[in-house]
Every structure is written in C-alpha cells, then in structure tokens.
Amino acid sequence: MIMNPISRRAFHQKSIASLLTWSLLDTLFSRDAFAKEIKPIAAQWLAKLNAMSLDLKGKKLDPVEWQKQVEQLLSTVDLPEMLQFIDFEKLSQQAKPKERGELSLQAKLPQVEGLPTELVFGHQVFALNKDRSVVPHGHDNMATAFLILKGDFHGRHYDRLEDEKDFMIIKPTIDREFSPGDYSTVTDIKDNVHWFKSKSDGAFIFNIHVLSVKPGRTGRVYIDPAGEKISGDRLRCRKINHTEAETLYG
Ligand SMILES: [Fe+2]
What does the alpha-carbon distance between residue 85 and residue 78 come to, in Å, rounded to a whole number? Predict the structure, then answer.
C-alpha cells in the first residue's frame, strides 16, 4: 500500500495513540487490582483490632487478654501491605523529625468495605531521627500498641507496680532491639511504661491507642527511669513533666 506523507503520519499517530491507551489501561488496571487485593487485608486486621478494643472498653475482654490477642494479630501483619494501606511513602516524605522527641503524623486510612468509619482507637505514626526517643512514660487508663514500620529501635518496657505522689515504682520487663515488623503493647496491668530510642535516621512507628479504657482520667505520666534501685529488681523513679522528659531523653 502506498501512503501519501499525510496519511502515513496519521497512521503512525493513531498507532502510537492506541499503544499509549493500552499501556495506560494496563497500568490502571493492575494498580486497581493491586489496591483491591491489598486493602481488604489491612482493613481486616484493623477491623479486628477495633472489635477487640470495643470489647476491652466494654469489659468483655481482660486487658492482658487484649494484649495477647493484639500481639497475635500484629504478628500476622504483612508490613509492605500495611505501608501501602497508610500511603507510607507519601507520609514519610512529608516528615521532618523534631530536634527532640517524636513527630506525630496522621495517616489517613482509606475508606474500605469492612473497616468501620468510626474507630474506637486513635492512631498516629511517630517519626524520629537517630538517638531521639519516644520518651519514657507510663499510661493512666490506656491501652496502646506499637508496630515498627521503618528503622531500628532500642525498646524498653516496665511494669508499673506502685504509685506514690511524686514517684512510680517500676520493674523492667522488656529490653531489646526492635526492627520493622516488631511490636509491643501496653495496658494498666502489664508493660505499662515504655521508652523507644531510635537507632537510625528516618525511623517510624505505627501507634494505636485506646483512651479511657474505664471512665476517668486517661493519658501519659512521664518518669525518669534512672531511679533508685530497690529490692526485687525494682526502680523508684521520679515523675517528671514532658519538658524535662524531652530534655533528659528526647
Ligand atoms: Fe505510650
């Protein structure tokens, strides 16, 4: 077939256009298929976490049992899927970690079938640079969980055994390295105090927290874990304010 120059150009343009359309369709289709596959999985465990936390608040689930079940659930999380679910790439690019302490970022959870729109727990992503800490603190009337998303941490937990007006008596329970995919939990009963120091720049933790497990005051209580050693591996630690905690450990 002999084409004049104009129709040849038109033919090429048409071919390129169809190629572009097909490759665009292909990209869109596989992205969509990927998202459809991923979202329900991450949504599923967050929905389970929500159900457990509702049971905790409704006293149908004992706090230590909540910890056990949440840790069991966190052990099943596929981290790459989770990162995709919270659009971690975009979130982490915007993060400028603070001079001291942790920067709190809000991950937007996609609206997905099976995931309640009203969650009983709050969630945030902490961003930290090397040698910066989620400073040592206990919790009043709270249940929380940490899931390491990126970077390595030195993580410590303590049981909160007793409270005096200005002191807290604690006992170490966990003292180890935490890497991506590792997790830990907190309730009033077990491992109530925690302290996470980042070992790398650009380190991130996913945090969920159930406030006011029972009616009444809820929140953090900062302490200085460099307390007086007393019998039975216990430490008597000063309660401090947030500013001092950040100065000493942030
Ligand atoms: Fe905490």
Answer: 11
Helix or strand or coil: residue 13? helix
d(CA 40, CA 81): 10
Judge contact between 60 and 20, C-beta under 8 A.
no
32-249 belongs to which homologous superfamily? Jelly Rolls (2.60.120.10)
Mean pLDDT of the chain: 89
12 C-alpha vs ligand 1 centroid, how far in Å? 62
What is the value of pTM for the model shown? 0.84
Mean pLDDT of all residues in 51-72: 97
What does the alpha-carbon distance between residue 53 and residue 56 come to, in Å, rounded to a whole number?
5
Average pLDDT of span 67-87? 95
How many angstroms separate the alpha carbon of residue 125 from the centre of ligand 1? 12
| Sign of the dihedral through C-alpha 37, 38, 39, 43 | positive
Distance 111 CA to ligand 1 centre (A): 27
pLDDT, tens only, 136-165: 999 999 999 999 999 999 999 999 999 999
73-78 average pLDDT score: 94
Query: Which backbone phi and psi does 206 adopt, to 5 degrees?
Result: -90, 125
* CA 144 / ligand 1 centre spacing (Å): 7
Domain definitions of the chain by residue range: 32-249
Q: How far apart are CA 86 and CA 93, in angstroms?
A: 13
Hey, what are 146's tokens?
């940490």
